[in-house]
Specification:
By secondary structure, this protein is an all-alpha fold. The protein is built from two helices and no strands. It is rod-shaped and about 80 Å long.
């Protein structure tokens, strides 16, 4: 009887999946941080970012 082939992913494929998951997690954390900052300070944060000194 022949043995069934074991399906294993290569190291490169697994590394790419892990990298994509890490990047999506970082984007989600950044969005949550921005949401928390803007909802906490509201217009004050937006004015601070958009403020330009008059020359």
């Amino acid at each position: 009887m022949r043995r069934a082939k074991e399906h294993r992913t290569s190291g490169q494929v697994m590394a790419e999946y892990v990298l994509m998951l890490v990047m999506f997690a970082m984007a989600a954390v950044a969005m949550l941080f921005l949401l928390a900052a803007l909802s906490g300070y509201g217009w004050r944060s937006i004015v601070l970012v958009l403020w330009e000194p008059l020359a």
